[in-house]
Amino acid sequence: MQKNWYRLDTAALIFPAIARRDWSNGFRLSATLTEDVDPALLQKAAEEMRARFPSFFVGLRKGFFWYYLEESPPVTVQPDFAYPLTFMSRRELRRSCLRILYYKNRIAAEFFHALTDGHGGSVFLCSLTARYLELRYGLDVPKDDTVRSLAETPEPEELEDSFLKHAAPAAASRREAKSYHLRGTREGGGYRHLTTGVVDTKALLALAHRYGVSVTAFLAAVMAQSIIGMQDLKRRKKRQRPVKITIPVDLRRLFGSRTLRNFSLVLNIGADPRFGDYTLEELCRLVWHRLSAEATRQNMAGMIAANVLPQQLTALRLAPVFLKDLVMDLVYRQSGEGGGSLCISNLGRMELPEPMRPLVKRLEFIIGPQRSYPNNCSVVSFGEKTCINMIRNIRESELERRFFSALVELGLPVDIETNDRR
Fold it and tell me: Out of 5, 53, 202, 212, which residue is the most buried by the measure of CB atoms under 10 Å away?
């Protein structure tokens, strides 16, 4: 029987090429419930998701010219690992690019980034959780854009590569000054330190509005100020590098796409400490105005074209996959992560249908460390709480200490949780 297969979307093409033995680009979404998870019912819910979300139940395959995604055997739900986002090996990715995990009262899904981005992952996780709660408690959960009906067939637009559809005729330049990167003592065995700061959503929003900016811009400014302070201790001003925060932009809002595959691009926004000292207010204004100016439909279409147009070159299309890997790895090292110091990915405020809300205590979003820098940050709000997750693969915790201390000093109480046992 012939298996269904899917081309990698434009953003996903680079992920298999740049993966390493100790690094795979993944992210995690989870829902913490009021009662412990029944693994058998979660397995049944996962199996029922397969027909509605076929592009998630796939393995990564390597062809002569390109990698592709092929329909895989059913995913078996597993007990959660010792720490989030453990390495996905090539062997595991051939079987499945998706993990479904449980621990006590938590359901988690981990995705290899070639499958989807944070938006697509959130739709999958919320739909899975909804089906599990229906099976467990006999609920009838209303369906919407967040929780999809499993009785429906996938819309063609959900499976499309929206990058191909919305590229501009000309490409934007990839040239960008290199940013300052944090360094530290790398942990052995791929261990990930996770520190979660839980804050009141209304208080965080009020604090951001006090500076006249969005929550994303405010958090990026505080993070930039924290990293600038760390660089000040290591380098003289004239030898410092720009400190820029990588901010993903969900392109669905700009282009009206409904795809569940990758459709986001990043902007690197920050300041150059060599030009002088910055107050937090100045950093907030700088980040907010640059984010507003650059996250436009026209600018993003040019950035999309920078990724799409090279695919159309005959020489690249006919090159074998091992040669494409070399080219993509070179491009990534030159212009991939070099432009940013750290990523802040904010999914914003997530809403669930009313019958689910009393049974879900919180939602969380975690992105893994990048290949060339050891810290990352991800944010999601649900109900009255916002979870700010900071992850690292080094021992040093100075960045988390500076960042969360800065929020407290600004009058925002932060409850700290960590997976450290050391």
Answer: 53
